[in-house]
Amino acid sequence: MKRKKNKNSFPARYLLLVLCGICLIVMFLAYSVGGTSGGPLNSVASYIFVPMQKGINSVGTFFSNKSDRFQTLESVMDENTKLKEQVEKLSTELNTVKLEQYELEDLRELYKLDQKYPNYKKVAANVIGKDSGNWFNVFLIDKGKKDGIEKDMNVMAGNGLVGIVIDVGPHYAKVRSIIDDTSKVSGMVLSTSGNCIVNGDLQAMNDNCEITFKNLKDADDKVKKGDQVVTSYVSDKFLQGILIGYVSETEMDSNNITKSGTITPAADFEHLREVLVILDKKTDATSDAERSEEHTSELQSPKDLVCRLLLEK
Asked: Exposed/middle/buried for 126, CB within 10 Å: 0-12, 13-18, 19+?
């Protein structure tokens, strides 16, 4: 059933208007009767309106503080963004400086190495690729046939021998280093002139950053730790006297005649960036030496001596 409306009910909006009117009348009377000196109505009004004013002021202050904090937060965020951009820029510049420093150090090492072997013609090259793994046992350089590089040319870096060129293209070359498992170099202990065979050994490099040698004759036990090992004059592909590394350990073989051991390489085979390729090949040097010997022998023949004497007269 529908609820019947109460005819005597007073609408709420009218009640609100009446109350507002009463408040206005009271305020008017308070200011008109009490004046500035105050009065009963003024006291009543103070009890009512002062807390209201304080509340309004508090709310205004709250929102004002929030607005100031928001503006401060925006300013901090903008400053933070600018600082991040500066940090990124400085990091990029720092990385560039580090790379330039590394390149400068490498160039200094190459220059020292070049001065160490002044009799050989050389060309510098950058390493542009390598096989998988931690070591530069087989790698590519950015110089090739167009730069005068040929197969079997020796390659150096750091303080000594790196390897040998095994393949050449117009603008690149592939190098097999002396640490590769398939590498064999005829070496010589500089202190004793004892010859040995230096073998690449990636497992030994992984274990102790070393390669191995064998067939060293050292009957007087003169070879010591730290002795330099260089390329031997009997090597068929490697030029004589290039530093391979330093003896780190020796032991007598089961035949009690020869010794085997390990060598710490002179070059850093984990961080190769630039190398020097020697343009003189061992086969060319041998041919030049043979031609020089033949020429000297011909000049010293009796027939030539007689001719020279007759011409001098």
From this structure: middle
